[in-house]
Amino acid sequence: MPGVGRLGLVERTAPADLARLGWDTDAHVELLWSLSRAPDADAALRAVVRLSEALDTDWDQLDAALQKDKTLRGRLFAVLGSSLALGDHLVAHPQSWRLLEGSEDPEPALPSAAELEAMFLDCLDQNDGPATLHELRTLYRNRILVLAALDLAPTVEDEPVLPFAAVGVHLSDLADAALAAALRYATDTVGKPDEPAPTLAVIAMGKCGARELNYVSDVDVIFVGANADALETRVAGEMMRMASETFFEVDAALRPEGKRGPLVRTLDSHVAYYQRWAKTWEFQALLKARFAVGDAELGRQYIDALMPMVWTACERDDFVSDVQAMRRRVEELVPADVRDREIKLGTGGLRDVEFAVQLLQLVHGRNDEALHVASTVDALAALGSAGYIGRDDAANMTASYEFLRLLEHRLQLQRLKRTHMLPAPDDAEALRWLARAAHVRPDGTHDALGVLRKELKRQSHRVSRLHAKLFYQPLLESVGGAVELTDGMNAAAAERQLAALGYQAPASALSHLAALANQSTRRGRVQAILLPTLLDWLSDTPDPDAGLLHYRRLSEGLVDQRWFLATLRDESAVAKRLMHVLGTSAYVPDLLLRAPEVIQSYADGPSGPKLLDVEPEGFARALVAAAGRQSDPAKAIAAARTLRRRELARVASADLLGLLDVRDVCQALTSVWVAVLQAALDAVTKANTPPDGAVPASIAVIGMGRLGGGELGYGSDADVLFVCEPTPGVDDTKAVKWATVVAEQLRALLGTPSVDPPLEVDANLRPEGRNGPLVRTLASYTSYYQQWAQPWEIQALLRAHRVAGDLELGERFLVMVDQTRYPAGGVSADTVQEIRRVKARVDAERLPRGADPNTHTKLGRGGLADVEWTVQLLQLRYAHQTPELHNTSTLQALDAIGAAELIAEGDVDLLRQAWLTATRARNALVLVRGKPTDQLPGPGRMLNAVAVAAGWPEDDGGAFLDNYLRVTRRAKAVVRKVFGS
Question: For the PII-uridylyltransferase/Glutamine-synthetase adenylyltransferase domain, which residue ranges apply (predicted)?
Answer without folding.
Answer: 325-471, 844-979
